[in-house]
Amino acid sequence: MASFEFLTPQTLPEAVDLLASWGEEAAVVAGATDLWVNIRSGKLAPKALVSLRALPSMRSLRHAGGDGNGGPGDGARTPGAATGTTLPGGAAGGGAASIAAGASPSGGALTIGAATPHADIEDSLWVAEHFPALQQACASLGSRQVRNVGTLGGNICNAAPCADSATALMLYDATVVLQGPDGERELPLGEFFIGPGQTRRGPAEVLTQIRVADPGPRTYSGYLKHTRRKGVELAMMSVGARVTLAEDGLTVRRARISLGVCAPTPTCSAGGELFLEGKPLTRENVARAAEIAAEESRVRDSWRGKAWYRREMIRVLVPRVIEQSGAFAAVETR
Questions:
Q1: Among candidate residues 207, 221, 194, the one with its CA nearest the CA of residue 58
Q2: What is the topology classification, in CATH, of domain 5-51?
Q3: Which of 122, 91, 128 is nearest to 107 (CA)?
Q4: pLDDT greater at residue 280 or residue 40
Q5: What is the pTM of this model?
Q6: Nearest-CA neighbor of 134 among 123, 142, 145?
Q7: Hey, what's the torsion of the CAs at 55, 56, 59, 65, to 10 degrees?
Q8: Partners of 186 in the β-ladder
Q9: End-to-end CA distance of the chain
Q10: If DSSP codes are grouped into helix, strand and coil, which group holds residue 84?
Q11: Please, what's the b/e burial string for 292-302 (b: 16 or more CB within 10 A of its CB; e: otherwise)?
Q12: Which whole number is the average pLDDT over 188-209?
């Protein structure tokens, strides 16, 4: 394994300056669950690693308009985040898993520090209640040991088509915040990805925050990861869905259908979403939206699965994840 300098900046501006001075020869390190593998295999050979571990503001879960108290895994307030409170964590090992399916209460926007481990999100009862698809996605990623170390920002910047957290965040119209030599900029998560392993992050920029807007009342969401086996496995493909009902409790006011490993980057089905919006939430309408999503997808053959199979599973999993979210039960019991 090639040698490298390990740099530990104490402030975000210092981290940006180090990245600017080293240029393409530097890599950012937070959890390093993917980075170390790539370095050891020779895929990457950075001359310097710029660590974010000494920046406590990069590990945080904050929401606006809530009244939570600090809990395990919570960090300091991230600079530039919306004012709010630090979220309570759950018990280690998936304490949030007991949250029942149902409409997410309107509880304010969520700001996540980019160096926040997936386990912190998995264990947050508040996230499980208000952004269940995100909690489910983080809980499905790797093993508990990986989730304790691997970070949300790292999973996004790795830009794998199978990134669980990115597929879930697409449902909530998340944005990413980047800090570089020219200041701060924010862009939609969907525009951040260019292709597999490629993003719009500049060589001297640090991903600092992921911002998620309040989805509003009467919102149901969920995430399903389809794999070849149970246990630690990358997704063969994954599906997320979010529906926000109108005041009548029957009509879809807004819909999101996100797909992982169904295109070069995590993506949403614009056609399937448009079909659902303004229509009653029925199983027939959802089945048609799933069909549109399957037709729009850009699936391909790989050693994990064939394109035809992935397309068929979109048709199966879109209705299933909406069922899991509790949306059908809410409409059909009115």
A1: 207
A2: 3.30.43
A3: 128
A4: 280
A5: 0.87
A6: 123
A7: -130
A8: 177
A9: 62
A10: coil
A11: bbbebbebeee
A12: 96
Interval 70-90 mean pLDDT: 36
- The dotted CATH code for 219-332 is 3.30.390.50
- Over 70: is that where the pLDDT of 223 sits? yes
Give 98: exposed, middle or buried? Use CB within 10 Å, 0-12, 13-18, 19+: exposed
| Distance (Å, whole) CA 154 – CA 302 | 24
The pLDDT confidence band at residue 178, using thresholds 50, 70 and 90, is very high
Question: Over the stretch 137-157, which tens digit does the pLDDT of each residue have?
Answer: 999 998 899 999 999 999 999
92 pLDDT band, cuts 50/70/90, is very low
CATH class of 56-212: alpha beta
Average pLDDT of the segment spanning 202-216 = 95
Strands 48-51 and 26-29: parallel
Distance of alpha carbon 234 from alpha carbon 222, whole angstroms: 18
Strand order in the sheet with 219-226: 219-226, 237-245, 252-260, 267-268
Q: What's phi and psi for 94, nearest 5 deg?
A: 105, 45
* The dihedral formed by the CA atoms of 311, 325, 93 and 66, expressed in degrees to the nearest 10: 130
Instruction: Collect contacts of 149-152 with beta carbons under 8 A, ≥24 apart.
Output: 149/31, 149/32, 149/33, 149/117, 150/31, 150/33, 150/34, 150/117, 150/118, 151/30, 151/31, 151/114, 151/115, 151/116, 151/117, 151/118, 152/112, 152/114, 152/116, 152/117, 152/118, 152/121, 152/210
Q: Rounded to 5 degrees, what angle do the CA atoms 316, 287, 231 make? A: 20
For the segment 82-88, the average pLDDT, to the nearest whole number, is: 38
Mean pLDDT of 173-200: 96
Q: Where are the alpha helices (DSSP H) in the chain?
A: 12-22, 35-41, 118-122, 125-130, 132-140, 144-149, 152-158, 164-171, 189-192, 270-276, 283-296, 307-325, 327-332
Task: Name the pairing type of β-strands 237-245 and 183-188.
Answer: unpaired
Residue 85, pLDDT above cutoff 60? no
Residue 284: φ, ψ to 5°: -65, -45
* Residue extents of the structural domains in the chain: 5-51, 56-212, 219-332
C-alpha 177 chain-centroid distance: 14
